[in-house]
């Protein structure tokens, strides 16, 4: 029988391809550098060719090493599916689950859903990763995470999208800027406002522009901020107004001196959904997770959450 590479050795190779550093790859794999180096040497001995080119200054993959990568990644994906299939036959939502969440959802939704998840699924080992939508979709495609909470619509080929709920946008501005503005407004109100939005790459910017038809208005401004708290500071100091999802304006999240204006029905909205790889063996689990989140939000909405 042939001597075959171990899954661990293939993991070491993938980590090296991502980091091009033995020390960083070892840290990524949670092993010592000497253990990882020995694993790579054993892999090279099994394959009969070097997979890494080492110099005193840097580490690169050999041509053969780069050729091996797709096979290594496919082998590890299949091994993970085997484990996932076995887990799914036991109890759903148990063991490790790597969940990505975008920054305009994470701080506002997670505090509400995590206690219930822990209570209903105590054996679930949830690993959270907060990042922008594009990077989360890439991480999903590379099998670095299992599922992601994002705002929809978002193009994600090869993924299942499960819509969970919708939430309205509201207009937020400094209270002393236009004290006569009514608390309930229409989209036409935006024509006279300087609207501050996050920089390109944030799906909240795109969804707010589309839902509120900002492309029809000339006073849109883009502020190069990567977070809503920074953007709100600009609004607080009178640089303009902004559009926020309802979950971000609940009591305790907004700084002092800001005023909230709700839109008359039908209010502009964004949709929140859960996405995962189409070929994942844990699809039923992720649907269960999505149903749990949607039910939690619905319960909160009846109590004034949205």
From TrEMBL:
Domain HTH lysR-type: 5-62
UniProt GO cellular component terms: protein-DNA complex
PROSITE patterns with a match to the protein in the record: HTH_LYSR (PS50931)
Pfam families documented for this protein: HTH_1, LysR_substrate
Keywords noted in UniProt: DNA-binding, Transcription, Transcription regulation
GO molecular function, one term: DNA binding
Protein family: Belongs to the LysR transcriptional regulatory family.
UniProt protein name: Hydrogen peroxide-inducible genes activator
Lineage: Bacteria, Pseudomonadati, Bdellovibrionota, Bdellovibrionia, Bdellovibrionales
